[in-house]
Write a structure and sequence with these properties.
Helix content is about 50%, strand content about 15%. The protein is an alpha+beta fold.
């Protein structure tokens, strides 16, 4: 028999989970992007309000359908990027997010990766919609973007497999 003990979250993660900052849909967002898959349990939508002349993030919010780590990392990321230029926000890594929440259990690192992946998708989408590409924006997807995509593909593959198994019964 397998036991399920609670993950050792630190007090900062628990506080951000109970009282997340910048939670909710942003009606006047300049751009939004989704990362994750409801089939795997973690899904984030990031909303950015951008001062388009200065390319500064005025506001950031998120919606999350995930665990405490998912909500805490998304919450802290919205705080980290507020007031930053898009270039500065692009440079935020999942390791920065994990550090800012005071650390995560290793099985939850993907939550920080997913949050940063959603942010980078939103920034990339913003420039795509504007029909321009700044010099600093790489052609290739970043580690966080690739990981978010892999997680989505894996969840899709598992959902398909589960459907096949259910169909065989």
């Amino acid at each position: 028999m397998m036991s399920r003990s609670p993950l050792p979250y630190n007090p900062k993660i628990l506080e951000l989970f109970r009282n997340p900052k910048n939670l909710g849909k942003m009606e006047d967002a300049t751009v939004s992007a989704v990362a994750g898959n409801p089939a795997c349990g973690d899904m984030i939508t990031f909303y950015l309000k951008i001062d388009e002349e200065k390319e500064i993030i005025e506001k950031a919010s998120f919606e999350s359908y995930g665990c405490a780590a998912n909500i805490a990392t998304s919450s802290i990321l919205t705080e980290i990027i507020k007031g930053k230029t898009l270039k500065e926000a692009w440079q935020v890594s999942w390791k920065t997010v994990v550090k800012e929440v005071g650390g995560l259990p290793s099985v939850k690192f993907h939550c920080g990766i997913l949050a940063v992946g959603a942010l980078k998708r939103a920034i990339r989408l913003y420039y795509k919609q504007k029909g321009k590409k700044p010099e600093w924006l790489p052609e290739e997807q970043t580690f966080e973007e690739k990981q978010a995509l892999e997680e989505e593909e894996l969840a899709e593959m598992l959902a398909k497999k589960m459907g096949e198994i259910e169909g065989e019964r």
